[in-house]
Design a protein that fits this description.
This protein has about 280 residues and is α/β, with parallel strands linked by helices. The protein has a single domain (about 5-280), classed as Ribonuclease Z/Hydroxyacylglutathione hydrolase-like (Metallo-beta-lactamase, Chain A). Helices cover about 20% and strands about 25% of the residues. It has helices at about 50-60, 80, 110-120, 195-200, 225-235, 255-265, and strands spanning about 5-15, 35-40, 40-45, 70-75, 95-100, 135-140, 145-150, 155-160, 165-175, 175-180, 205-210, 240-245, 270, 280. The strands form two sheets. Strands 6-5-4-3-2-1-14 form a seven-stranded mixed β-sheet. The chain has a seven-stranded mixed β-sheet with strand order 7-8-9-10-11-12-13. Bound molecules: zinc ion (ZN) (2 copies).
């Protein structure tokens, strides 16, 4: 948070699929998805992968573990929710954290069901969800819904192309725009209009680039995209800064550095997201 009119994003987790800490992932990070966005002084969190544990630790140390925020899930695959039981502010009954998911319409589980009967339920996890429920509310919305939050924050949502569904986000504040487009797979031969709409004229776009054009054919249908497609979207949507995201666990820092170099030769303002980095608009 830097000024009342600034919009910022911090990457608490950049990795897709599974955490992969170790000497080979020190630079780009090993934690799974979590973004902290400040619209002026108001905090919005997206996803609760393992990166959210470190955000919780910071809130515990600097803010007496008291949190008032909206937390939006892109979807509820494991790499996007597995940090939630380790997010300390949820164990403070005075916190007020509104959890939102938009991909579960028609599913047999709603968001509360997934957290309460799958993630935080014995014998999968020893701490029951009842211990966080004083601090939480659960909101299932239909993807496409727009949230008009206090303080002039507009959050638009749009469907992504991912197994079991996922929602992308477009956060608008003080004329500035951040678009979150992960997890999503591109379509062959045409650009995804939903992704372009989310990212149109964005100052920052986060795009799923788990694969490269060479590796993608091995993973077709798995719900992820490539850095080459990120460039196409950035061009089509007139994006200023693009962050490649959902790094494949097999991509070491050496591989990521190589991707960073290749992409920089083709389009300026595109590079891999780095865990712990904050971008202020
Ligand atoms: Zn994922
Ligand atoms: Zn997923």
């Amino acid at each position: 948070m830097s000024s009342p009119t600034s919009l910022s994003i911090k990457f608490w987790g950049t990795r897709g699929s599974i955490p992969c800490p170790g000497p080979d992932t020190v630079k780009y990070g090993g934690n799974t998805t979590c973004f902290e966005i400040f619209c002026g002084s108001k905090r919005v969190i997206i996803d609760a992968g393992t990166g959210i544990r470190l955000l919780g630790k910071q809130i515990m140390i600097e803010e007496q573990n008291l949190l008032n925020a909206d937390l939006f899930f892109t979807h509820t695959h494991m790499d996007h929710i597995q940090g939630l039981p380790f997010f300390a502010p949820l164990y403070n009954a005075n916190s007020d954290v509104r959890l939102h998911a938009g991909h579960l319409a028609g599913d047999k589980y709603d968001l509360h069901g997934i957290i309460g009967t799958m993630l935080m339920k014995d014998p999968v996890f020893p701490v029951p969800s009842s211990l966080i429920e004083k601090a939480c509310s659960f909101n299932d919305y239909d993807c496409g819904h727009e949230f008009d939050l206090d303080g002039g924050i507009l959050i638009k949502t749009g469907q992504l192309n991912h197994p079991n569904g996922a929602c992308g986000y477009r956060i608008e504040f003080e004329g500035k725009i951040i678009a979150i487009c992960t997890d999503t797979e591109h379509y062959e031969g045409r650009i995804d209009d939903n992704v372009v709409a989310l990212a149109k004229d964005a100052d920052v776009m986060v795009y799923d680039a788990a694969y490269t054009e060479e590796s993608y054919p091995n993973f077709k249908g798995w719900g992820h995209s490539t850095w080459q497609e990120a460039i196409k979207v950035a061009d089509a949507a007139n994006v200023k800064q693009t962050f490649l995201f959902h790094h494949d666990p097999s991509h070491s820092d050496v591989v990521m550095d190589k991707i960073a170099k290749e992409v920089a030769l083709i389009r300026g303002g595109v590079r891999p997201a780095i865990e712990g980095e904050t971008v202020v608009i």
